[in-house]
Automatic annotation (TrEMBL):
The protein, known as: Putative transcriptional regulator
Record bears the keyword Phosphoprotein: no
Domain HTH cro/C1-type: 6-60
One example GO MF annotation: DNA binding
Protein's UniProt keywords contain Coiled coil: no
InterPro entries tied to this protein: Cro/C1-type_HTH, Lambda_DNA-bd_dom_sf
Listed PROSITE patterns: HTH_CROC1 (PS50943)
Lineage: Bacteria, Bacillati, Bacillota, Erysipelotrichia, Erysipelotrichales
Amino acid sequence: MLNENIKNLRKAKGLSQEELAIKLHVVRQTLSKWENGLSVPDSVMLISLADALDVSVNELLSETATKPDSDDIKTISEKLEVVNLQLAKRSMARIKTIRWLLILLCLFIVAIFIILIKINGSYLNWNYNDPELAVAGTIIHAFEFLFVRIAPIVFLASVIGIVLTYRKS
């Protein structure tokens, strides 16, 4: 029902998919998926969509009938339950993605520290009269200098982020 309502209301307003997509700051393909019932907009986007189509969210989610009865209310509540379940699943997927990105960032930082320990400043003994070695050595030294100062802060922030993402789930 939501997909048909989006399509009908968009056409009634005389908007193309592209025009409505621009108003909503999404790509046309997203709007097409909504109209074909392949996906549904999240709650924030539902509000924006209703505003863009000059209707209430209830009208957007309801059937085309104008007077509500108990069956319509039940249908709407079931639809809202499905939408909320989909939103919860998306939210959990985002949290898991963020958690794994933070874990990978921590592993990357540890790996770089191990590499820097293995190098043990050997670039400092290079012949800096050779311009290419001088440039490479300077770049490595600058990287190490900044990394050793910034990485612990980023690592700690990542660990805190990982802990917080486990708390929310």
